[in-house]
Every structure is written in structure tokens, then in C-alpha cells.
Write a structure and sequence with these properties.
- With about 170 residues, the protein is mostly beta strands.
- It has a single domain, classed as Immunoglobulin-like, CATH 2.60.40.1240.
- Helices cover about 15% and strands about 40% of the residues.
- The chain has a four-stranded antiparallel sheet with strand order 6-5-8-9, with no helix packed on it. Strands 1-4-7 form a three-stranded antiparallel sheet, with no helix packed on it. Strands 2-3 form a two-stranded antiparallel sheet.
- β5 and β6 form a beta hairpin.
- The longest helix has 22 residues.
């Protein structure tokens, strides 16, 4: 009679302990193992202008220089912080022309041709547009999208070889 009670007591102690240990383990996101390049969106900003103040050292002291950057008329900046990671050993390079933004109306936008200005506005590090062949790249990049499109759904799409992905930026 005593032995079954001891076994039951041990079971009742071990069960909650095992649930606690396994239930608290961090959940790891599992990437599609078939992707050659995986794109992750960390955060984004929509701006109708960028502004910063730079303190410039001069012989007679310091001065403040205001920098402003505006998108073309009718557009806004969509600035995104991304991580792009290569999986496997396939020799396919990351194709920047295949990384687009699509708005709710179906319009697509390419990455800005020259977004080096992001560094001046403290969006660091910036991902350069240079070819990616392996490893991992992290940083900011910029798109210029229609202002009315920024109010609706936005989707980041990568349609490179072996890496088709759609990431909801804004619902």
C-alpha cells in the first residue's frame, strides 16, 4: 500500500517539474529549410521627411548644421531594418532587384537607388546594395512609396531563386 503512494507522490512531483522545464524553453522560429536566402523584418519607419542636426567643430567653436531629406512629391520614405541570411551552400547570390514592396493596390516599389543618406540620419548600419553571396547582412534600407500607399497594407516580397517570401510590413 505504501509503495504505490510513494510512486504516485514522485510522479506528481516530477510531472510539474518537467512541464516547468520544457514549457519555459525559448521558442525558436524555424525558417523554411528550403529557402536559400531568408529575409527577416525587424522594424520599419514611414517618414515624410528626415531631419538631423550635426554639430560641426570649427576653429572658433562649434556650429549646428541642420540636414533635411525629402522624398519626391507625393511619396514618403519607407525605411526598414532587415536581416538577410543565407542558408545552405547553393551558389545563388541575393538579388536586390527581387526585393520589392507591394502596396494594397498591387503597385510594386524597388529599393531606392542611393540610400546612403540613411547614415546621416542615424539609421545605422545601412545595408549596402552590393552583391551578397554568403553569410548574414543586417541593417537599414529605404524605399520611396506613394504617400497614400503608406496608409494601407504593405508587403515585403523577395522572389529570388529558391527564396520566395512574403512578409507583412503593415496591415
Amino acid at each position: 500500500m505504501r509503495r504505490p503512494l510513494v510512486i504516485l507522490a514522485c510522479f506528481l512531483l516530477v510531472l510539474p517539474l518537467s512541464l516547468l522545464l520544457f514549457g519555459c524553453s525559448p521558442v525558436k522560429s524555424t525558417a523554411n529549410p528550403n529557402l536559400i536566402w531568408k529575409v527577416d523584418l525587424l522594424k520599419f519607419d514611414v517618414k515624410d521627411k528626415l531631419e538631423s542636426v550635426e554639430v560641426v567643430q570649427q576653429y572658433v567653436g562649434t556650429t549646428e548644421q541642420v540636414h533635411q531629406q525629402y522624398p519626391p512629391d507625393g511619396k514618403v520614405f519607407l525605411i526598414m531594418d532587415l536581416t538577410i541570411t543565407k542558408h545552405g551552400t547553393d551558389p545563388v547570390s541575393f538579388d536586390w532587384s527581387k526585393l520589392t514592396i507591394q502596396d494594397a493596390a498591387g503597385n510594386t516599389y524597388q529599393r531606392s537607388g542611393n540610400d546612403t543618406f540613411l547614415e546621416l540620419y542615424k539609421y545605422l548600419p545601412r545595408i549596402s546594395g552590393l552583391e551578397l553571396k554568403l553569410g548574414k547582412a543586417e541593417g537599414w534600407l529605404c524605399y520611396e512609396i506613394l504617400a497614400q500607399a503608406a496608409n494601407g497594407k504593405l508587403t515585403l516580397i523577395y522572389s529570388g531563386d529558391g527564396s520566395q517570401q512574403e512578409i507583412i510590413v503593415k496591415k
